[in-house]
Design brief:
By secondary structure, this protein is an alpha+beta fold. The chain has three helices and nine strands; from the N terminus they run E-E-E-H-E-E-E-E-H-E-E-H.
């Protein structure tokens, strides 16, 4: 892996979670230390080779089929398979107490996290991720 440190001549800020996409978390040691108890319940931390920087990839292994397909906005392939979920709606009773999950093993499937994970992230003053509210357990 190679970190991009400059973009169009501007030096980028170092983040606790360098961005790759919503489908994977890349974490520096500070984020790993702050989140490990939550992370290991729902996935695995894998080392990444990145010259000059210690990084871990968080692979979510917790698949929770909680998508309410009828209520969600979904783009599909001609054969009916899901291409992209534009606006997910969840069956909250299926999510239950899962703090971190994916809806399927499809490539590019985003990671969903609970408010508990967001609160832990913010209380540790970690940087690099902006969270978007998708559901409430209320």
């Amino acid at each position: 892996m190679h970190l991009i440190r400059n973009d169009e001549g501007k030096k980028l800020k170092e983040a606790d979670s360098p961005w790759l996409g919503s489908y994977v978390l890349i974490l520096r040691p500070r984020a790993v230390a702050a989140l490990t108890p939550l992370l290991l319940d729902y996935g695995e931390l894998l080392p990444l080779r990145c010259p000059g920087t210690e990084l871990r990839l968080y692979n979510v292994t917790n698949i929770v089929p909680a998508l309410d397909e009828a209520a969600s906005t979904i783009d599909r392939f001609p054969d009916g398979r899901i291409m992209m979920v534009r606006r997910p709606v969840f069956h909250k009773h299926i999510i239950g107490s899962n703090d971190i999950f994916k809806l399927s093993r499809r490539p590019g499937e985003p990671i969903y996290v609970s408010q508990r994970v967001v609160d832990q992230w913010h209380s540790a003053k970690l940087t690099g991720i902006e969270f978007h509210h998708k559901w409430s357990s209320q």
